[in-house]
User: Which sequence fits this backbone?
């Protein structure tokens, strides 16, 4: 089979060209005569759709290859090469990246279409679509890169787009601050990524820095270095995928337009960390300790975020914390070396979370940009399509069989249990219950009960078709995606796991049937309990609660933002100000000022001699000459 | 013999220095400088005699020419100063005071 | 012996004249005694067989330059009360002499190390116009020309400085 | 083109500048002259770039005896290291004449002279010749800053002049020491840099001479803690001067370290590399943190520039090929990005009559092209992949990790620190809401846009396809590192002693 192809590069290039074209037209016209919105929408959708077609082609080509040699690669050009370091601008499509490709381009395209409706009437729509296309291009570079450095290009690129889109409504200071926060926090993670790459390079990079070479040389890593590399890369992942301690930017990122939240902050970009860990599975598989840490960080994040999610009153914040929580699951999955399970959850999560965000977007759109769930209520009559699709999404998120989320989440929990991580499994089940609770709390409050704001309720209407059609497609995905990886116990063949196998270094645990049933039973029970509590509390006539005690603490997100502000941000600013006001003028500049002062003092002292009479100067000269004469007379003897 | 002439030269030169540094009258100061130049000339001529070459004479000539030039300029300056201040005291001119 | 006598005579006159220059209060007196010094020095030049310098000393120095100085002194018409008040001038002079003394002593000690050439008779034509002129225009041509330019410049400078101009306040 | 191309690059601008100063030419003619000469230099520079062979030795050499009794020659030559600093100057200088159209004649003349002098300092292969051009470089800066600067220009001028002169004198003393040592070891006078690497320098005097060089260059770069002249001078200088100072002249300091200190004082350099590296990295962090507290855009950029120079200098001190190559690459990248940022701030100041961050806002809505260009330059400055800034920073961090893990980690924080102040400034100046002052902000004119476009394109090209540049730099860098190898192993052994776990593999893999 021919493994070297030339069309891989076009996949990221198409959206990037789209971004360039859109940006060019937007900048050229925005202050004169803006172009038609339809034009922008149309141009914006071409790139992603073509990329989707190419992604399918990649997928099908791979499918036609023998399982053990399923990859396509393209070495575009030598990017930079210094000494042993040889970085190629190369692309690699293997089962793992092809799976990511397909769903990223699919969901990306759907969200582009949805945005045509959602962003209607925005005067910067050209800019919006340019950013969105740029994001998609970067994401595809991230997925397709055949070495960590190319991946890093996409990695930072999506971070940049995230910043640009969060601060899209840039007239609001808070929005821009949220964007800054996202970029800076991501950069902290990126530092970990860069350092990890550096360690990796000095350890085994001399033999080539693409994934194949790294995988081949991974065995020669010392345990210490391997652990360091794994943990540093994971720091990168926590930044991008919003895990503890760097999760703080994601809830704030909801300041951006809702399609952005769906595409970037739920479906694609935030899963990059999971993808990266899976990509480096050959490293993590060697270092169980690193996996252990990843899994625990993931599950604790899942727990904490679920707690926060239970008390939010902004519809997007609820979904944001649920995203953080689900990402925690994914890390728990890849942490216990169930990489395919983690990736599968990424896959299903992309569908139902995008669906939920777009549904929330439709609600917000209908409620004229009202995001507080306590101002909504009873919307199911007004927006039936949105309601149904969102319920499907919610069921998938909550892990109701047979929706997508059930299978993927169950796979993770089962793997945790089967590999003996009972603690992680137990927390996971607890979080599953909480997920069901807060998801349906949101659904009940928003769509059931009585309208809380009658005027807004009266004006609200179903979203246009350009928005609901993507919702329906995604709902179908959320409903059916789980069956792609149907485990054997339900009579399936785990196609996704088998598909991914060549890309991952994974050992499938073999556990007894009892364990499998226990895992499934616990998940279903948690779901039922969670949804039941939510129904009791919120299905009819729930009022906005007043928080106290622990719930107040949780409502304020354990004051983590304030803590970070107090520990990092304020001292940083204070140091900067202290340097500007005190240290710079009076410490570092001190030697200079001292020297000039010294000259001043000496000069003033010598001023006494400057009487101004020429005669006196002559006297000085003669006195000097005289003294010299005295001295020289000594030497004459 | 040579030492005697040189001693005279030194003596005149020292008297010239004393004149420059002790007197305040511009003319006296100026003439004291001329005296020093003459003392130097005498030394030149003496050395010329010692070595029996005439380069010292040439130098003395040149010194005289310079002295003439200096006299012309210096007197011009003196006239100017007198016009401005009406005085001949060197202490009046203290623009160099720091 | 005759030459020695003349040397002592000229030396005494020259030194006395120089002392007069620094001691007299009025510059006119000082200038007169300075002329005496200059003439005595011309005698010393003659004793050193420097015929041309002897002549030029008398003509240019004692004649031209000193006349210029005297002319200026008279031109400014300096009265007794115009002179600077120099009450402690003898104190200053003594102080000056004390400061200068080490220089003089040092130089005297230096010249003692020179060989005491006792030649009284020089070669034919030493210091004559022709001989000095030959050296001047052969070996010292460039300095000579530079001096000529210097004289020109000082001429212009003197005219510019002392010439009529508006008083600038 | 012809064999004296370097001499032409040096003396064409200098002579043109002097002629302008001595003749009563008007400012229009002066600007036109500057434009023509700088474009001529650009063409010559491009010609050199394409003829340049990918090898380590000096090329385009001119060698004429100058003061034979002391072995001082008029010796010019280019290698991969100086080539790019020279090119950065050649590419960027025409922009100044295109953008600033209404300055005095003396301003343009001084710019021309400084351009020639910088080319001279870069091409000089003889220490004394280098020193002369190094000093000439300062003079036009002195005049431009003192005559056309801001309110506190006199103070700033004095500070920079005294600072640099002090450094230069130390360097002069060191040059004399090196020359004398050469004479005593080989029995003849020679000041050619290529000969100096044969010297056996040891003992306390050699250390002093080493620091003489280092301090002179550290002041120019400027390296912490010798940076205190920088904020004042950068802030008070007219835009073109700041541009020249930051984009090119500071780079000559780094270049000089690579060119003079590394080959001549290899032993001392390896001994003190750790100290110097800390100086670089601390300077980076210090200036970066200070930048966020600034209220003046230009002053903030000044600190940002100093911060980046710390990283660039660090690359030189890390004693490996990746870091050194990265450093040289970053020199060019930083010249384009920060230089252009200073020009943008100059335009901003011209239009808004203020540089206070708090007085600005919402410019992105009024001037999208301006904001777009500014954003690209800013992103290059913070080292976003795909722009020129990434390659250099990545290589430097990579090299720093090998050199010393702690320094590598600290150097990595530049990724975060840079973003903090840049985003904060971008938010306050370009986002948020317009006020009555920025309401009237007009976008770049066609001329201005076309002036900036090539550099903006260059920033992106250098980020996406750096290999043609790197392949020209690398041989020279390899050669320098090879010269250091002996000292290098000692250094690595010392640094790995403190880090046994990582050091183990470092040794094994190399």
Assistant:
């Amino acid at each position: 089979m021919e493994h070297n192809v030339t069309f891989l590069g076009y996949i990221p290039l198409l959206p990037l060209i789209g971004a360039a074209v859109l940006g060019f037209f937007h900048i050229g016209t925005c202050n004169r005569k803006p172009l038609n919105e339809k034009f922008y929408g149309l141009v914006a959708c071409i790139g992603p759709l073509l990329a989707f077609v190419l992604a399918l082609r990649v997928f099908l080509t791979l499918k036609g290859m023998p399982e053990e040699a399923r990859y396509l690669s393209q070495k575009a050009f030598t990017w930079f090469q210094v000494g042993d370091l040889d970085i190629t601008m190369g692309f690699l499509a293997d089962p793992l990246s092809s799976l990511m490709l397909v769903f990223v381009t699919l969901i990306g395209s759907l969200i582009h279409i949805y945005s045509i409706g959602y962003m209607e009437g925005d005067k910067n729509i050209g800019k919006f679509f340019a950013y969105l296309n740029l994001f998609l291009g970067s994401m595809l570079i991230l997925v397709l890169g055949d070495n960590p450095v190319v991946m890093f290009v996409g990695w930072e690129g999506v971070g940049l787009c995230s910043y640009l889109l969060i601060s899209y409504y840039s007239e609001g200071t808070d929005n821009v601050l949220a964007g800054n926060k996202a970029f800076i926090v991501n950069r902290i993670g990126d530092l970990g990524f860069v350092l990890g790459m550096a360690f990796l390079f000095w350890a085994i990079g001399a033999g080539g820095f693409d994934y194949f070479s790294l995988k081949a040389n991974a065995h020669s890593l010392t345990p210490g270095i391997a652990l360091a590399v794994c943990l540093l890369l994971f720091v990168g992942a926590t930044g991008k995928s919003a895990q503890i301690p760097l999760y703080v930017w994601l809830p704030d990122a909801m300041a951006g337009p809702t399609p952005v939240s769906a595409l970037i902050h739920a479906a694609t970009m935030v899963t990059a960390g999971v993808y990266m860990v899976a990509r480096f599975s050959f490293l993590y598989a060697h270092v169980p300790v690193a996996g252990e840490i990843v899994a625990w960080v993931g599950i604790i994040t899942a727990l904490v975020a679920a707690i926060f999610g239970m008390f939010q009153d902004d519809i997007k914040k609820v979904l944001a914390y649920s995203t953080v929580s689900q990402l925690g699951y994914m890390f728990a999955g890849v942490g216990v070396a169930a990489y395919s399970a983690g990736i599968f959850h990424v896959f299903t999560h992309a569908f139902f979370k995008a669906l939920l965000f777009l549904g929330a977007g439709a609600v917000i759109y209908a409620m004229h940009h009202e995001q507080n769930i306590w101002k909504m209520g009873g919307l199911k009559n007004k927006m039936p399509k949105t309601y149904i699709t969102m319920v499907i999404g919610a069921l998938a998120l909550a892990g109701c069989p047979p929706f997508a989320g059930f299978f993927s989440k169950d796979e993770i929990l089962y793997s945790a249990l089967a590999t003996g991580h009972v603690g992680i499994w137990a927390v996971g089940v607890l979080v599953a219950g909480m997920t069901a609770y807060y998801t349906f709390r949101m659904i009940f409050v928003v769509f059931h009960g009585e309208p809380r704001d009658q005027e807004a309720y009266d004006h609200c209407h179903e979203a246009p078709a350009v928005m609901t059609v993507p919702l329906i497609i995604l709902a179908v995905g959320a409903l059916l995606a789980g069956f792609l990886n149907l485990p054997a116990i339900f009579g399936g063949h785990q196609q996704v796991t088998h598909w991914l196998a060549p890309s991952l270094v994974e050992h499938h645990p073999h556990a007894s049937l009892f364990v499998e049933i226990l895992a499934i039973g616990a998940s279903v029970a948690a779901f039922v309990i969670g949804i039941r509590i939510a129904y009791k509390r919120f299905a009819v006539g729930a009022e906005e609660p007043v928080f106290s005690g622990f719930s107040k603490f949780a409502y304020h997100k354990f004051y983590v933002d304030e803590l970070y502000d107090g520990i990092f941000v304020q001292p940083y600013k204070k140091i900067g100000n202290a340097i500007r006001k005190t240290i710079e003028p009076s410490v570092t500049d001190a030697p200079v000022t001292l020297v000039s002062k010294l000259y001043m003092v000496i000069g003033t002292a010598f001023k006494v001699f400057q009487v101004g009479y020429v005669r006196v100067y002559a006297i000085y000269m003669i006195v000097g000459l005289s003294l010299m004469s005295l001295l020289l007379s000594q030497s004459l003897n | 013999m040579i030492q005697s002439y040189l001693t005279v030269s030194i003596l005149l030169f020292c008297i010239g220095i004393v004149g420059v540094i002790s007197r305040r009258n511009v003319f006296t100061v100026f003439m004291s400088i001329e005296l020093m130049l003459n003392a130097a000339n005498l030394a030149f001529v003496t050395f010329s005699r010692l070595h029996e070459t005439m380069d010292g004479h040439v130098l003395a000539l040149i010194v005289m020419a310079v002295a003439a030039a200096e006299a012309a300029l210096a007197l011009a300056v003196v006239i100017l100063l007198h016009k401005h201040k009406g005085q001949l005291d060197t202490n009046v001119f203290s623009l160099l005071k720091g | 012996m005759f030459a020695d006598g003349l040397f002592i005579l000229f030396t005494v006159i020259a030194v006395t004249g120089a002392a007069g220059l620094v001691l007299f209060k009025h510059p006119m007196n000082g200038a007169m005694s300075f002329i005496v010094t200059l003439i005595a020095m011309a005698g010393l030049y003659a004793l050193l067989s420097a015929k041309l310098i002897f002549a030029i000393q008398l003509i240019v120095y004692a004649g031209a330059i000193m006349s210029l100085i005297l002319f200026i002194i008279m031109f400014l018409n300096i009265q007794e009360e115009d002179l600077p008040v120099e009450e402690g001038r003898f104190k200053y002079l003594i102080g000056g002499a004390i400061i200068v003394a080490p220089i003089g002593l040092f130089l005297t000690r230096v010249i003692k190390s020179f060989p005491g050439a006792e030649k009284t008779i020089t070669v034919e034509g030493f210091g004559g116009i022709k001989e000095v002129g030959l050296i001047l225009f052969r070996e010292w041509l460039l300095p000579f020309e530079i001096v000529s330019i210097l004289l020109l410049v000082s001429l212009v400078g003197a005219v510019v400085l002392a010439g009529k101009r508006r008083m600038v306040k | 083109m012809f064999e004296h191309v370097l001499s032409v690059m040096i003396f064409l601008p200098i002579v043109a500048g002097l002629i302008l100063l001595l003749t009563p030419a008007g400012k229009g003619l002066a600007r036109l002259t500057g434009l023509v000469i700088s474009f001529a230099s650009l063409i010559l520079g491009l010609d050199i770039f394409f003829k340049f062979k990918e090898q380590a030795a000096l090329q385009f050499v001119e060698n004429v005896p100058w003061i034979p009794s002391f072995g001082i020659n008029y010796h010019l030559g280019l290698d991969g290291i100086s080539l790019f600093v020279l090119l950065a100057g050649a590419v960027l200088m025409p922009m100044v004449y295109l953008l600033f159209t209404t300055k005095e004649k003396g301003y343009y003349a001084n710019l021309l002279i400084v351009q020639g002098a910088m080319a001279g300092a870069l091409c000089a292969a003889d220490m004394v010749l280098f020193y002369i051009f190094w000093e000439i470089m300062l003079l036009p800066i002195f005049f431009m800053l003192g005559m056309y600067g801001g309110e506190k220009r006199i103070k700033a001028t004095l500070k920079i002049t005294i600072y640099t002169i002090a450094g230069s004198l130390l360097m002069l003393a060191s040059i004399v020491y090196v020359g004398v040592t050469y004479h005593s070891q080989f029995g003849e006078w020679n000041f050619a840099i290529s000969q100096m690497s044969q010297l056996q320098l040891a003992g306390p005097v050699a250390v002093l001479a080493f620091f003489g060089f280092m301090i002179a260059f550290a002041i120019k770069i400027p390296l912490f803690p010798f940076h205190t002249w920088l904020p004042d001078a950068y802030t008070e200088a007219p835009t073109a001067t700041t541009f020249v100072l930051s984009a090119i002249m500071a780079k000559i300091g780094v270049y000089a370290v690579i060119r003079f200190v590394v080959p001549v004082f290899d032993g001392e350099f390896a001994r003190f590399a750790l100290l110097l590296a800390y100086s670089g990295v601390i300077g980076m962090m210090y200036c970066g943190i200070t930048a966020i507290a600034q209220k003046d855009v230009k002053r903030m950029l000044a600190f940002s520039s100093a911060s980046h120079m710390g990283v660039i200098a660090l690359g030189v001190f890390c004693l490996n090929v990746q870091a050194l190559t990265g450093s040289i690459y970053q020199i060019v990248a930083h010249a384009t990005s920060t230089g252009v940022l200073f020009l943008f701030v100059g335009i901003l100041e011209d239009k808004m009559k203020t540089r206070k961050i708090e007085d600005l806002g919402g410019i992105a809505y009024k001037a999208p092209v301006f904001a777009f260009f500014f954003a690209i330059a800013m992103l290059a400055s913070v080292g976003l992949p795909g722009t020129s800034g990434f390659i250099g920073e990545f290589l430097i961090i990579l090299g720093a990790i090998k050199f010393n893990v702690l320094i590598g980690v600290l150097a990595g924080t530049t990724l975060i620190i840079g973003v903090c102040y840049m985003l904060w400034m971008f938010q306050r100046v370009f986002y948020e809401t317009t006020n009555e002052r920025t309401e009237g902000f007009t976008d770049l004119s066609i001329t201005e846009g076309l002036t900036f476009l090539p550099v903006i394109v260059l920033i992106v090209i250098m980020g996406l396809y750096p290999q043609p540049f790197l392949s020209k730099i690398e041989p020279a860098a390899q050669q320098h590192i090879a010269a250091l190898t002996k000292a290098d192993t000692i250094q690595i052994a010392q640094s790995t002693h403190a880090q046994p776990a990582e050091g183990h593999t470092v040794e094994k893999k190399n």
Observations:
- Residues 2-89 of chain B form a domain with the Helix Hairpins fold (CATH 1.10.287.3510).
